[in-house]
Amino acid sequence: MNYSEPLLTISDVMNLLDNRGISYDDKQKAEDTLRNMSLFRLKGYLYPFEQDHATHLLKSGTTFEKVLKLHDFDVALRALISQWLQKIEVSLRTQMSQVMAEATDQFWHINPVNFRNASQHAVLLTKLNSELNRSDDDQILAFRRTYSDPFPPCWMSMEVTSFGTLSLMYKWLRAGNSRRDVASYYGLPDTVMESWIHSLVYVRNICAHHSRLWNRTLRIQPVAPRHPHHPFISSSSLNNRVYYVLCIIKYLLDIIDPSHKMQCQLTWLWVNYPMIDKRAMGFPEGWELEPFWR
pLDDT digits over 153-193, tens only? Predict the structure, then answer.
């Protein structure tokens, strides 16, 4: 069956929302908002307010402003997660560069012997070359003007490597002490480290594309560590919700930057958006009593 739904004008969207039972504190402001936010994007935030998902009729008392407040919470959550992931990504680049260079040399990333599969390594080099070609970093440009090496040393190359390429690079490293040493810095087995990096890249991409995250069922689910070397949650939690990702982020930040302000920033979110249903985010009952969070 081919899709045949017509494009809706702003007036059509307003009428549709009216028919579903929404109300407004300021209807003109709502219309102005919809000129810059598609109904497709808004639908994900309307869903929790529906009393009937078949007809999409909204619960009594649903206002456009309440729906927008939920959207704004998601924006704030994604901004904080992006900020926290930046520290984790930079740390991981540094650890991989340092550990692998000490074990082999500064050009370990271009040597196929350090990877499990030659064709996978070729894919990595193609991705890395593309990222280097896009870079306008002064040091990268100076290196390419001065030296004939096809790639800069690892400490330069890692700085322009995307989080996704970095994830593949770790995943495809040849099994051995070096791969385990990177993970052991974070107190994890290498299999768990691989899974966590993959999950964080997935969430980072959701944030980068400004997609709904707060109550999303995550398609890529991280492995639970059996015996992490640092404090982690003890309760069994859904690993397909954002709560579990927040636990992973806090675990890693506790190692990378023990003075981080993640808990204060989360408290700021709860204070400014008290209507948020944390259960939809995967927060279990009594989560705040966990020693990990205290």
Answer: 999 999 999 999 999 999 999 999 999 999 999 999 999 99
* CB proximity list for 192: less than 8 A, separation 6 or greater: 183, 222, 223, 225, 228
pTM: 0.94
Q: Which of 108-117, 134-143, 209-218, 228-237 has the lowest mean pLDDT?
A: 228-237
